[in-house]
From TrEMBL:
It comes from viral metagenome. Residues 81-142 form the Glycosyltransferase 2-like domain. This is Glycosyltransferase 2-like domain-containing protein. InterPro entries: Glyco_trans_2-like, Nucleotide-diphossugar_trans. Coiled coil: none annotated.
Length: 247
């Protein structure tokens, strides 16, 4: 069967989120998740070292409780986001690399759906432009109508390892790194089903200010006919709220 590497970039302030993502990954229905590659990306040496220690303890606590190998990738240097993504890709061993951000929600069928799509079609990369987003401060669910089929944010991208032979992120980027990785969003991309893919979290600590992004955005509309607790399990939802410092 097709093996999967899950790839996550994290940092000190997201350690609680990382622990929550562990539960989300454990709930995935796809059985051939080979490894979870965790790249430490704190932008402060002291915080980096502290987070490395936290993650190493966490991995040691969980290693006998999961069949998924958890591997911490670290650098002595402070690296920008695009360099961290390249570092992670260089260490992935699975047939397919599935990107997961530490602060977003992925339904249990997410990895399985992604693998099915990549195995079905003769393309090397998949993603989702028409994503759902949930604002944990305003308690509102939103839907992006999508930009075009070859567009995706990195948090729901997945690609065959073969894709990495000719594709890397441009060095030195702190955001919007997807553009370089997809040759300006021109690479033929398999569109994933938004309802099977991701709920993007909007909170005060996003790398990119998503609260500002959704304001007056013609591609974003509020979803009023869905209950978030019908999508995200109550326990995980409460853990996510706690991680984002809301009571």
């Amino acid at each position: 069967m097709t093996t999967v590497s899950i790839l996550t970039i994290t940092q000190h302030k997201r350690f609680i989120c990382l622990k929550n993502l562990y539960d989300i990954i454990q709930a995935q229905t796809y059985l051939e998740i080979k490894e979870w590659i965790i790249v430490e990306g704190s932008q402060n040496i002291e915080l980096k070292q502290n987070n490395i220690e936290n993650i190493e303890i966490f991995i040691n606590e969980k290693k006998d409780l999961t069949n998924i190998k958890m591997r911490l990738i670290k650098s002595d240097d402070i690296l920008p986001l695009s360099d961290l993504r390249n570092l992670g890709n260089d260490n992935c061993l699975g047939d397919i690399i599935v990107c997961m951000d530490d602060d977003d929600y992925y339904p249990p069928i997410s990895v399985n759906h992604t693998v099915e799509k990549l195995n079905k079609y003769n393309r090397l990369i998949a993603g989702c432009s028409g994503i759902y987003l949930y604002d944990f401060k305003l308690n509102k669910l939103y839907k992006c109508s999508g930009y075009h089929n070859n567009h995706s944010t990195n948090n729901c991208m997945a690609y065959k390892r073969e894709y990495l032979k000719n594709h890397r992120y441009k060095d030195g980027l702190h955001f919007a790194e997807e553009y370089s990785f997809t040759n300006g969003f021109t690479e033929p991309m398999i569109p994933l089903n938004p309802e099977k893919c991701i709920i993007v979290s909007i909170h005060e600590y996003n790398t990119v200010d998503k609260q500002k992004w959704i304001t007056d955005n013609e591609f974003i509309s509020e979803v009023k006919d869905k209950n978030i607790l019908d999508i995200i399990p109550h326990k995980i939802f409460e853990n996510m709220k706690e991680a984002f410092y809301f009571e």
